[in-house]
Each structure stands twice: as structure tokens, then as C-alpha cells.
Amino acid sequence: MRVSSRANTVLVNLVTWSLVIVISFPLIWMVVTSLRPQTELFKIPPTLIPRSITFEHYAKLLWETPFLRYFANSMLLATSTTIVVVAIGTLGAYSLVRFSYRGRELLAGLILFTYLLPSVVLLIPLYLMMVKLGLANTLTSLVIAYTTFALPYALWLLRSFMAGVPEDLESAALVDGASRMGAFFDVILPQALPGIISTALFTFILAWNEYLYALVMVNADDVRPLTTGVMNMLITSFNIEWSLLMAASVMMSIPLIIIFAFLQSYLTRGFGAGGVKG
């Protein structure tokens, strides 16, 4: 039985690592290509390990192109969208769960219906609205646009976490003299922390990677985010700067990797974090 159990364990590990390698191979090739000298870029047959490693592509990308400006625009855009969506979504989800008013379920259904609509359906109306408001070619217009299709999902995700918080905890806080908002911040938010972090992560990734709205609504080069800025900078009708494109892709992935690594431990830390009375 021990031999059979060990054989099963080895087989499972082998299959798991094989899948990890297959899934990770495009990322590995992206990193290797970004470090490969220009002379080895189109070498046939291609080799996984380059003969020499160079960081010239990263240096050129950072100091000879407007990449850092695009990077700052994307960071500001994604952070602003996340803050707006999480702030409104948290309060809205709390309202849908804790308060009884006419049309509450209808409102929840309409929110879900809005999320089910393809984002491209809202593109032209939102663009015309931004033009009328004088917000065209600004990051503010993208924050508003991203909020329209990130907020419905955030509301539904946070609604389930808010519903999972026992009402007795909130009632106990209210009996002890806490205000409604005090109980919300001291009891509800700590309990719903995993959902809030998940929602923030989803919203940040959505705003960081979005391409279509940024392409249509922003044409000024000084306010382009990374997705459209890198495309406009490195991909033309006559040439594609593959080495710089791979270096840019690596740089664009770093913030998401850092955020995942940092927030992973917080996804479970919020459970029970408001249930103990101080």
C-alpha cells in the first residue's frame, strides 16, 4: 500500500509540474526574449537559453521611450478606478443586504443585467457623454467608463460577502452604543475584507489591462495608458519592436505579480477579523 501511495503521489506531482511548465512557458519565453540580444532574436533554430544576457532593451524602453509616462498613467487610472468602485460598491452592497425598501430586488436584478451587457455596447454612448462633459482625452473619462462595467460585478460580489456577515454582530455593536456607520466600519468591513480585497484586485486588473475604451476615448499621447501607449509606440504597419515589446510586457506584469504576492496573505486574514469585541 505504501508503494502504491508513493507512486500515486509521484504521478500527481509529475502531472502538476508538467501543467505548470506548459502554462508558464509563454511567460518564460517572454522573459527570455526580453533578455536576448538583438542578434539572437530571430536565430533559427531558436534556443530557450540565450548565449548571452543583455538589459539593453529595458534601458532603451525606460530611458528612450515614453514608457514611464504610460506606466504612471495606468497606475493612476487603475488605482483611481479601484478606489471609486470599492467605495461605491461596498456601500451599495451593504444597502442591498441590510435595508428593506421598495424595489430592492428589482434594483439588484437591473445591476446584474447591466453587468451582463457587453462593454462595447456602452462605448459610443459613454464617448458622446464624455465629449458633452468636456472630459474627452482625459484619464477621468476612462475612470468613469471603467466604473460603469466594474461596479455591477463589484456590487454582486460584495453583496454575497455582506450577506454572510451575521446580523447579530452588528446588532450587538448597535446595542453597545455604536452608530450605524460605526458598526459598518468596525464590524461589517473587517468581516467582508476578503471580498473587498478580491473586488479591488479584480477592478485593478480590469483597469490595468483594458484596451478598447482606452483606444477610443483617449487619443492624446500624454494621457495614454500602457495598453494603447505600448501598442502605438512599438507596433507599426511596417515593423514590430519585438525585443522592446517583450520587455514592456514583462514590466507591465510586475505590478500585478507584486499585488498578488502582497494581497494573497490578506485574502484569509479578514475572516473573523471583526467578530471579536475589543
Automatic annotation (TrEMBL):
It comes from the Bacteria. Keywords: Cell membrane, Membrane, Sugar transport, Transmembrane, Transmembrane helix, Transport. It holds the Pfam family BPD_transp_1. It is a multi-pass membrane protein. Residues 71-263 form the ABC transmembrane type-1 domain. It is found in: Cell membrane. PROSITE patterns: ABC_TM1 (PS50928). The chain crosses the membrane at residues 12-32, 70-94, 106-128, 134-158, 187-208, 242-263. SUPFAM superfamilies: MetI-like (SSF161098). Belongs to the binding-protein-dependent transport system permease family. MalFG subfamily. Part of the ABC transporter complex MalEFGK involved in maltose/maltodextrin import. Probably responsible for the translocation of the substrate across the membrane. This is Maltose/maltodextrin transport system permease protein MalG. It comes from Labrys miyagiensis.
